[in-house]
Amino acid sequence: MNNPITIMIVDDVAENRLILQMILEADYLLIEADSGKNCLALVSEKKPDLILLDINMPGISGYDVCKELRSQPETQFLPIVFVSALDDPKERLAGFEAGGDEYLTKPVDRDELLEKIKYRLAQQHLLANAQKEAMNAMNVAMEAMTSSSELGRIIQFVKILNDLEEEISVAKAINEMIEEFGLSVCVTLTGENVIHMNCEKSSFEAKLMQHFQSQPERIFSAGARTIVRSEKIVLLIKNMPVENENLYGRLKDHLVVLADMASNRLLTLQFQSTMDSQRKFLINDIIDLAKCQISLTSEKIINHEKIVQNTMQNMVSELEEMLFGLGLEEDQEKALLKLADNATCQLEQSNRSTAELDAELGVILESLHELLGKEASVKM
User: Fold this and answer.
1) Strands of 129-240, DSSP E
2) Which of 16, 111, 190, 376 allows an S-S link to 11, with CB 3.0 to 4.6 Å?
3) CATH of the domain at 228
4) How many helices (H) and strands (E) in the chain?
5) Structure confidence by residue, pLDDT tens digits, 315-343
6) Are 258 and 283 in a shared domain?
7) How many CA atoms lie within 13 Å of 106's alpha carbon, on the beta-carbon side?
8) Domain assignment of residue 311, yes or no
9) Which of 122, 155, 182 is the last residue of a domain?
10) 179 assigned to some structural domain
11) How far is CA 241 from the centre of its chain?
12) Residue 135 lies in a domain
């Protein structure tokens, strides 16, 4: 049922108020004031839809009442119709200058009065709708600006997230991001180590988030409390703005996006950690294999050197014994001994080359150890 339209009749003469009452009482709810002072006192309390205002009254005149009402935000656009016995053009002009919407003279014509009232109420209705639409448009614009600002923060969060190398840094980043939205949050990360932020491990909040880690729902709401779950992270918001439906829905969407992005970063860090461990194990395996192979190669080189040395010594000894039995000239003996010496020198040079090879294999092993040390320092 629509509320009845309320009209206030302001006149210090009771007979004048009675005449207006008889014309209007069938269609409108009426309020009466016998002075400008009483009118101002009743307006804020009764909040009429239109005022029929006399001009010449004791105390505060109708002009001053109108000016006062126009100065107040609550009654700035309230329809005011002057009803006066003064029919002078100057009085009419003074009425409009004071802020009146219409000016009727006494005795009032019934049809004209009803027509003016209907017209001014219709204009007021149009004005109220226009103001409402303007307010809605302003709210939409403000919401769009706010949403744009929120998306800007999320984009900045993505940039920060990609540079983080530790799980605790991810927890701190998402905590700070959510607090920028004016929300109180508890964070649980399920990475290599379980990390709790803004709550203790044994707290009710931590146990509640642990319960929802295995639940299929992404979002669970209970009043101002909302839980948002992703693969590697659970968020507990304690003060969601349930009284603001648009903001509430928008923030829930943002929280899901933030949780997914943080979870993806945690997965990336865990993958990198796994790859680092596998790389370390691989290098260790290569070092162990290299050690074994170098040890075998070194042993073969040493055995080869021993065989060569023994062979040379035996050959020289046999050559000397043969020289004495052959009866060669002294020059021939020297020539043969020189050939033996040259062969010995060449074999010694070969032994030195194999020693250098052994040293180079040691350098390779040292390089592998150095690579392993660098891998460990980068991970730290």
Assistant:
1) 185-190, 194-197, 219-222, 225-229, 233-237
2) 16
3) 3.30.450.40
4) 9, 10
5) 666 666 665 556 556 666 666 666 666 66
6) no
7) 17
8) yes
9) 122
10) yes
11) 16
12) no
